[in-house]
Each structure stands twice: as C-alpha cells, then as structure tokens.
Amino acid sequence: MQEIWTEKYRPDSLSHMVGHEAITQRLQAFVSQHTVPHCLFAGPAGTGKTTAALAMAKDLYGEQWRNNFLELNASDDRGIDIVRSKIKDFARTKPLGAPFKIIFLDESDALTPDAQQALRRTMERYSESCRFILSCNFSSKIIEPIQSRCAVFRFARLSNEAIATYIERIGGYEELYIEEEAKNALITVSQGDLRKLLNVMQAVAITSDTIAAHIVYEVSASLKTEEVRSILDKALAQEFEQARKQLRSLMIDRGLDGLDVMRDLHRTIFELELSEEQKMHIVQLLGEYEFRITEGASPDIQIESFLAQLTQLSPQE
Ligand SMILES: Nc1ncnc2c1ncn2[C@@H]1O[C@H](COP(=O)(O)OP(=O)(O)O)[C@@H](O)[C@H]1O
Ligand SMILES: [Mg+2]
After folding, report:
1. Which of 52, 82, 105, 238 gives 78 a disulfide partner, CB atoms 3.0 to 4.6 angstroms apart?
2. Does residue 148 contact residue 134 with C-beta atoms inside 8 Å?
C-alpha cells in the first residue's frame, strides 16, 4: 500500500523544513537552550505549523518525544471538557528526561472566547510541567490574555521559489518527470499550501510517472488561467449563454463546486489583462457572491447570477 506523502515527507527535524528561516532559527534556539515558552503558531493551512511543533519535539526530546508530546484538536467534536481532561491526564505524569512536556493544540481559534478563558487557566495551572503550542489560522481570533502569554510565530504561505524547490525535491525522490508547464500548474493550484501540493502530486503520480499540467488541473479540481480568461471574455462580451455553458461543463467535468469556482476566479483575476476598474468590480462581485454561497444560497444560481452581472460591465471600462 502506498504511504500518504504528507506523512512520508513530513520533516523529522527543524533543520529539514522548507522556508520559514526566521521561525526555524528561533525554534532551534529554544531547543539548544532547553527552554520553550508557550507559543502561538498562526497561519494558513499546509504551511508547516503542525510539522514545526512535531519537529521541535523530536529535536528536543529525541527518542523520548512520544512520551513528552501530546497533540490535541481544540475543536474536538466531543467538546472542550474532553480536551481539558486529556490535558489533565497528560500533565499529571512527570516529563521523561526533560524539564517539561509539550501540548500542541490545533485549531485553537475554533474555541469560543469563554472556552479560551478556560484554556488560559488550564495553561497557567500546568505551566510548571507543560508548554503549550497553540495553532490557529487567525491570531486575531485568540483572546488577548493568551496572545500576551505566548511567543507568536506567523507562518506565511510558502513562496513560489520555495514551492518550486520542493517540487524538484519530491520529484527526485519519487523519480517523476515533471513537465515545465506542470511545475507552474502545481505552483498555481497549491497556492503556498504544501499539503495541497503533496496531495495533488501524489494523485497525479498514481496514474503516471510523467506529471502533465492538464492532469494537475484535473485532479486538483481547478480551472486553468486560460479557462477563466475565456469564460470572463465571453461574459464581458455579453455572450452570457456561452459563458454559462462553458463554465457548467467545466464544473461538471472537474467536480468543482461554487466556492471552488470563486476561489479560482479570485486567484486568476490579477493575472489577467483587465483594467483596474474591471478588476475592482469583479472583486467586489466575488466578495458578494462568495458570501452568499457560504451563507447557504444555491451555488448554481449564484454563479449564474454572477456571470449575468459580469455581462453588465462594459468591456472597455
Ligand atoms: N515548511 C515545510 N517544510 C517541509 N514540509 C512542509 C512544510 N510545511 C508543510 N509541509 C508538508 O505539508 C504537510 C502539511 O503540513 P502541516 O504542518 O500539517 O501544515 P499545517 O499544520 O500548517 O496545516 C506536512 O506533512 C509536510 O509534509
Ligand atoms: Mg496542522
């Protein structure tokens, strides 16, 4: 059976992480001084927050890392009380061969402010024996008293250069032939998210050792820049029915939902040659329609309504 690449290629040490140089240096300093403060890792998915916490634990504890490291999800379906009781059980026993244990709490920003207050008290109660690493997408959703007790690390999306290097590396390990155009496609669809990148690469590699751009778009449920261009061109030229047909068939073909389409439009808009005015209008529309879809409006109707609105924009604006 094939191992999942996101696990297979998860770096075991901070020194093997890609990008985030300033962050890994600070964490390595904690390791060499054997002192770790509570930490807050903030940033989008697939940028290495969990990986960095695990890698630091492995660098710090060596063979003993499993005994001294606990990973929990703050938004555990069974509720914050389960999370707190797991923390309590783990914190009760002494750290092995180390002055403190590490508790990694994923998705901390999913906790309500009240639950975060409780978490803050838990952090204080066990701070002798445990250090907390909280991970979140948005640090603004973490209450101030927790933020001020943590060293904050911001994980940015990985740069195109870092992603390109990483594609080469994985391609080398897996003995893949990656077409030049496919490299760009991989960079485009992964959007700085290495989990997405690895999943797409693995999905393509299952069918072929040669990675071609069109398969990358297929497996990643994405629209190509040229496809977006062509749909927008039709809509802006008031060819509503044509634009609608083309988008429909691509959506069915690739299994895209309304939000996927909004995401791809947003990603592509800035690569297209449109006037500032047009871009502004389109982005405003995207914001409006994305909101409606996330609020539960029918994606099919919203997408068509979006296209209809586009036909009202003047082409030479
Ligand atoms: N900076 C990085 N260097 C190397 N691999 C990474 C990095 N960031 C993510 N990855 C890879 O992507 C996968 C997902 O990363 P993860 O740390 O789980 O992301 P996050 O917790 O930020 O959502 C990991 O299994 C790892 O293989
Ligand atoms: Mg994670």
Report:
1. 82
2. no
Q: Where are the domains of the chain?
A: 5-154, 160-219, 225-312
Fold of domain 225-312: Zinc Finger, Delta Prime; domain 3 (1.20.272)
CATH number of 5-154: 3.40.50.300
Per CATH, domain 160-219 is 1.10.8.60: yes
Ligand 1 neighbour 50 (Cβ under 6 A): yes
| Residue 116 CB partners (closer than 8 Å, separation 6+) | 108, 142, 143, 146
How many Å separate Cα 74 from the centre of its chain?
A: 17
232 alpha carbon to ligand 1 midpoint, in Å? 34
Side-chain-facing half-sphere of 66: CA atoms under 13 Å: 1
Tell whether the model's pLDDT for residue 317 goes beyond 80. Answer: no
In this predicted structure, the answer to whether residue 210 has a pLDDT above a threshold of 90 is yes
Q: What is the pLDDT of residues 160-192, one digit of tens each?
A: 999 999 999 999 999 999 999 999 999 999 989
Chain CA centroid to CA 44, Å? 4
CA 295 to centroid of chain Cα atoms? 22
Distances (CA, A) of 156 to 131, 166, 255, 263: 23, 16, 29, 19
Best of 7, 10, 58, 170 for a ligand 1 pocket test (most atoms within 8 Å of beta carbon): 10
Q: How far apart are CA 191 and CA 249, in angstroms?
A: 24
pLDDT digits (tens, 9 = 90+) for 101-152: 999 999 999 888 988 998 999 999 998 899 999 999 999 999 999 999 999 9
